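Example record

The entry below shows one chain as it appears in the dataset: sequence first, then structure tokens.
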Amino acid sequence: MSKIRLGYIDYINCLPVYYAIEQGQVPIAAKMVKGPPTKMNKMFIDGKLDITPISSIEFARHSEKAVILPEVSISADGAVESILLFSKVPVTELDGLKVSLPTSSATSVALLKILFEHYYHVEVEYSLEEPDLKQMLKESDAALLIGDDALLAGEAVRKQGGNSLHITDLGSAWKEFTGYQMTFALWVINRNFVEAHPEEVANISNAFIKAKEYGFANIPALVDKAHQKTGLPLKVLKRYFETIKYSFGEEEQKALLTFYDYAYKSGLIEERAKLNIWGEEIG
């Protein structure tokens, strides 16, 4: 079999899963393709990737093409620290104002729209922009950032004293609203790949679980690599890796289905998605 086409969201929140693979500690014969979530989503949907982390909202929109790898996700139980809304006024006062959304995001955009409609009860005007906080706020009253962009902007705003902008952590807001944690991304395998190479899927699934375990056994190395990439303070990065959750057990699954219920109510997906997880409903 030729090398697996493996997507890699180019944010530090993927390091705990990919560090062991990149270091050769967990061998996977793969061709790595890096990019923001929206690029990985499109490549997977277009059949150009075999395995990738995918925005959880995009799984719901294209579940017929994907099988979820078990025990691996990008989730948060409350604050996530890298999904942040920066606003010139408190979020409850944004009604009728303009909000910039990043071109890099899918799940977080859907989550923000759900929170605006069902939790904050505000209606806003949206614009789609490249993820640059200063530019986004030139014409808008609020801006959403995700991943490394959010971490860096959040740290910069806090260094300024935090008085210029209000920061809303969408993981915290979702927890306050529903009482549930939030799953932002899933690792998925193309269904055609599963059908063509069923003997490989169990090995791949086990490899990703081992890679995650290796990553969390080497947090100092993850922090150092993330510092080299972002320049963020070591204590900020250590806290971040302690905040993000990478499991996908019963609680995460229940919470994700709740997210899909609200996405359906808001017209963001056409039907409530079912979770096709390798080894449970498939395989």
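Notes for this example: The chain has two domains: 4-75+182-265, 83-178. The chain has a mean pLDDT of 93.
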